[in-house]
Amino acid sequence: MNIVNLKEVNSTNTYAKEKIDQLPDRTVVLANRQTAGRGRFNRNWIDMGEGNLFMSIILKPFSDFNPIYSNLTQYMSVILCRVLEKYGLDVKIKWPNDVLVNGKKISGILSEAVVKGDNFNGLVLGVGVNLNADIDRLKLVTDKDVASLNIELSKEYVDKRLFTEKLLSEFFNDYEKFLKDGFISIKDEYISKCNFLGKRLNIKLYNETVDGIALSLNDSGALVFNTKNKTVVINAGDIL
């Protein structure tokens, strides 16, 4: 791996996308501070301070875009669960890639393809993880259920360097298998960590909200959903 360490950046994903032509495959961009982090649907990712993880991985697996790349965020959510479980935590996944610790969101994951003209230049996979947050600040900056690793472990500080090493090691251990087989390579493990199957849910799509029952996941990682007495396949959305 090639490591790029930054003191401060607007967004590690933005930096990686801008530099993707200059940086090799498997470059990891790390920042101490991130001033304009983004999640899915352009949501803000709140910076909890220097003790937290702000990271983007530049990936150039093939010269053409492959549909399985859209499952990279689900792959990362499984990898993140593996690492967090090693800390003795109860970890679940809320479709498609939210990682929950004791029912609270601890990370943000965002994958972006970089295409210039007809050329596929690669992917940028970003992940932010709350590792070290002050509980009073956590309450001030968000009205949602958000977790931080140090608080869940009742520790003053979690070693960010060690956590990052564990995450990257776990990610690249099965990365080649994921590229070969896609979501099917993690499907069973992903489903074992799901907290939503069989439940009645509201799913926010880009321009509407649908109500129904989450039935299953197909081999492409999409949600099979029963709504208004019909079964539909939802490829992108958020569970409310």
In the sheet with the most strands, the strands line up as: 1-2-5-10-9
Q: How many separate domains?
A: 2
Number of strands: 15
- Beta-strand residue fraction: 35-45%
Named CATH topology of the largest domain: BirA Bifunctional Protein, domain 2
Question: What's the pLDDT, averaged over the residues?
Answer: 91
Q: Secondary-structure element order, as H and E?
A: EHEEEEHEEEEEHHHHHEEEEE
Model description:
The chain is α+β, with helices and mostly antiparallel strands and 240 residues long. It folds into two domains: 2-192, BirA Bifunctional Protein, domain 2 (2-Layer Sandwich); 200-239, SH3 type barrels, CATH 2.30.30. The protein contains seven helices and 15 strands. The protein has helices at residues 12-19, 72-85, 135-141, 149-152, 160-173, 175-181, 187-192, and strands at 2-9, 27-34, 37-38, 44-45, 53-59, 91-94, 98-101, 104-105, 107-116, 119-129, 200-204, 209-217, 223-227, 230-234, 238-239. The strands form four sheets. It has a five-stranded mixed beta sheet with strand order 1-2-5-10-9, sandwiched between helices. Strands 14-13-12-11-15 form a five-stranded antiparallel beta sheet, with no helix packed on it. A three-stranded antiparallel beta sheet has the order 6-7-8, with helices on one face. Strand 6 (91-94) and strand 7 form a beta hairpin. Helix 2 (72-85) crosses helix 5 (160-173). The longest helix has 14 residues, at 72-85. The radius of gyration is 18 Å and the shape is globular.
